């Protein structure tokens, strides 16, 4: 069965009955950069959403942005809005002589449930700094200050910062940017194929020096800054030595290992719940779970999603590729 030409990649199983499906595409690159295996359409452009952030951060480092590793990781983040994330965004802004009034992220509450409740209980409101992309925006602003560029128009696709990001993005994905859309945070959103996205992550993960290495090491050293303390992305980073990864909206996900192997995926319906299920299965299919130093049980746990009935597990969402 397929949908819009895409194959089933996961089944929704309740009480032993398959009540629905997720359709999508997955690509796995071998260490030499060739496609090891794929499912669905992996050569057509997609909008990888926040999975683009490490590459955007790379462009800023190439321009001269010099943040400590934790704040560079935060530049790659869709953060949970926990207090250390918010404090980190303020540190990034302060390093450039700015404060949160410079941010053009839409006002929001933290992604993390506990952090959101804490803000609300304290009488707090939605604010730009709490929005999950504020680390990226702070880094963009700091880069503009460094380069002497206008900070009021930093989200304009024609701004020199965004032009530089497009050039870097095209180079490391190995593909031209055919679409410049607007992401949820208001920043330019660049298209590439899943294969191009995986290629970009492999470029970061294999680097042993230079800006690419700095970005990859920041993610490895501070994965809690890239997501949050309760997220499946953090658990995967801790379970697989040397891994770098980043999820995006609309069920995008890309990860890579230091040997050059890389994976990227997206579902057609954009369901966030199935994203870690698919990545855990992709890593298993590629043999990663059997490798030395990998916590296979922890990887499998990131991909385990129970369906509840009466408050108790009665089914699962399971990979089907």
UniProtKB/TrEMBL annotation:
Pfam families: Asparaginase_II (PF06089). InterPro entries: Asparaginase_II (IPR010349). This is Asparaginase.
